[in-house]
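[recover] target loaded
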């Protein structure tokens, strides 16, 4: 509004002082470059002298208004104004379809990799863990010395007989002409004399390690516990852990059915007997570290290689489309920044005022920045995907993150074009307006949330499985906020300490009441209030900033012809955009 009043006052001053000659404005610089409505003037700028007539002043202001109004038009309005084709819109639609198709194909391929990993891990647990039952990883343990020896002997025997008992295409790792074996290591205190009956102990906490290996040999069999040929002796009073570590190899042949080249897998398996607590319960854990690499020598008959080439060509087209989108979006961002500097200089020269930061940020299009990030991620992910298909790399996880994030940003970027319609724009405006208040509100709520996390972890951790670590505590409390698993959280609390049990009731009741009935309600009210405010603005008009007020004085419609230049292409009658 201030910009309008200043402009109007200046026009009245010009009319009143006409008889005495045109007024002069002192300028800080002898020359100022401003842009006109002409395409050539827009690119090359216009230089005016320190002495400018009132008619030229009005012309420059009118040209600046048209230039700003054209900059903030949507693609359809720009087409009607100058016949400019909406290339970015067309490229974004094509890119959306191609990136989604690319992600689906990669997801199907990646799913086979995930399934192969999980199936092999489950198969190895049943092969090398005696009496293993699915879904018992957290409770799988042994409680007697004989059980420990039996588990170790069972795993070694299964490893030695792998070729005869495994139904998969598993094999030992080869190192030249030899095969790598199983390493058996035990970690224990250097010295220890523990007498719980007398409440005495003498221990040297230095940890020592003893290892030996068992080489794969079909004719070798270490027998049962009574026939133990390992000569393994464990001092359970000093024992910390026993580790059985070995490597196996396999080839994922199921990808051939989907016209993809198979990968070769290296499985580094570790069976750990954990006796660090010396509690009479030795927990047994199984870890499978998987690496994927290119097979050394392979040959596949048929159309597998041809299909791989087609997919790589498709990925190349995706890279080209994203490169074009990247260039167009980057060019638009640069032009916006240039126009921002031009408008700031113009406003300072003509109105002696600085443009506010909020008005300056109007020229920085966040949607274009997001699309630039998406294009960079897509190009990088596509190159990595081509390397994976060529079996030069096997970074499935990194490629998944890049392609997944880029596709997410591409789909979010489509909302920009829906924002040109008033009914669809309501969500975006609500999010933009509510974001600052939401961030401040979340910072305050996070302080209370972290306080409950630390308190629950230190007090309830020894008595409740859901409070054993800070990460688990945070997940538990977040679930409570959403009303999930409330009864189980109350019921699973141990009653060994009545004081802690009573504290847990106060802790849980106050947390649920505070976050669900107060903080969460205030959070929803904050969003709702912003939503109602935006609806009110859409009906009665948004508050005018100096920038918008300055632009609103230009009443020329996009199809008025005043935005067009001599070298602009004519508007096609087949345009799908409505006037």
């Amino acid at each position: 509004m201030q910009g309008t009043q200043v402009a109007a006052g200046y026009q009245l001053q010009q009319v009143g002082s006409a008889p005495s000659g045109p007024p002069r404005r002192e300028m800080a610089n002898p020359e100022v470059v401003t842009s006109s409505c002409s395409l050539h003037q827009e690119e090359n700028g216009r230089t005016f002298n320190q002495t400018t007539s009132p008619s030229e002043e009005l012309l420059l202001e009118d040209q600046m208004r048209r230039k700003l109004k054209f900059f903030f038009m949507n693609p359809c309005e720009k087409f009607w104004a100058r016949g400019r084709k909406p290339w970015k819109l067309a490229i974004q639609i094509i890119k959306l379809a191609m990136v989604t198709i690319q992600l689906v194909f990669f997801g199907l391929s990646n799913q086979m990799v995930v399934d192969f990993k999980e199936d092999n891990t489950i198969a190895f647990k049943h092969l090398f863990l005696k009496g293993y039952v699915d879904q018992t990883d957290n409770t799988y343990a042994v409680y007697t010395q004989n059980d420990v020896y039996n588990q170790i002997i069972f795993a070694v025997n299964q490893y030695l007989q792998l070729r005869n008992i495994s139904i998969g295409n598993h094999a030992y790792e080869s190192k030249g002409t030899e095969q790598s074996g199983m390493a058996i290591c035990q970690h224990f205190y250097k010295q220890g004399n523990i007498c719980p009956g007398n409440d005495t102990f003498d221990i040297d906490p230095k940890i020592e390690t003893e290892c030996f290996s068992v080489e794969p040999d079909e004719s070798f069999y270490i027998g049962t516990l009574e026939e133990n040929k390992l000569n393994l002796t464990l001092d359970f009073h000093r024992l910390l852990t026993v580790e059985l570590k070995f490597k196996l190899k396999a080839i994922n042949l199921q990808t051939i059915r989907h016209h993809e080249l198979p990968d070769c897998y290296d499985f580094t398996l570790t069976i750990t007997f954990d006796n660090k607590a010396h509690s009479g319960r030795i927990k047994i854990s199984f870890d499978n570290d998987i690496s994927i690499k290119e097979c050394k020598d392979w040959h596949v008959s048929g159309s597998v290689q041809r299909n791989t080439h087609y997919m790589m060509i498709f990925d190349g087209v995706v890279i080209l489309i994203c490169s074009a989108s990247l260039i167009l979006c980057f060019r638009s961002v640069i032009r916006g920044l240039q126009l921002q500097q031009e408008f700031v200089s113009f406003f300072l020269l003509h109105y002696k005022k600085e443009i506010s930061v909020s008005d300056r940020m109007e020229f920085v299009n966040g949607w274009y920045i997001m699309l630039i990030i998406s294009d960079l991620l897509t190009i990088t992910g596509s190159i990595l995907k081509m390397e994976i298909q060529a079996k030069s790399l096997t970074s499935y996880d990194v490629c998944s993150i890049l392609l997944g994030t880029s596709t997410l940003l591409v789909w979010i970027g489509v909302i920009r074009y829906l924002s040109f319609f008033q009914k669809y724009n309501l969500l975006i405006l609500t999010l933009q307006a509510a974001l600052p208040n939401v961030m401040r509100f979340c910072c305050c709520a996070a302080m209370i949330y972290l306080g409950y996390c630390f308190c629950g972890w230190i007090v309830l951790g020894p008595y409740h499985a859901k409070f054993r670590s800070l990460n688990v505590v945070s997940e538990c409390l977040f679930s409570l906020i959403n009303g999930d698993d409330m009864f189980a959280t109350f019921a699973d609390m141990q009653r060994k300490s009545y004081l802690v049990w009573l504290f847990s009731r106060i802790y849980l009741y106050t947390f649920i009441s505070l976050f669900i009935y107060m903080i969460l309600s205030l959070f929803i009210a904050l969003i709702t209030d912003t939503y109602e405010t935006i609806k009110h603005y859409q009906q009665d008009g948004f508050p005018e900033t100096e920038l918008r007020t300055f632009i609103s004085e230009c009443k020329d419609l996009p199809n008025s012809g005043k935005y067009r230049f001599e070298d602009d292409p004519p508007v096609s009658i087949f345009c799908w955009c409505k006037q």
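[recover] notes: Residues 308 and 389 are 7 Å apart (CA to CA).
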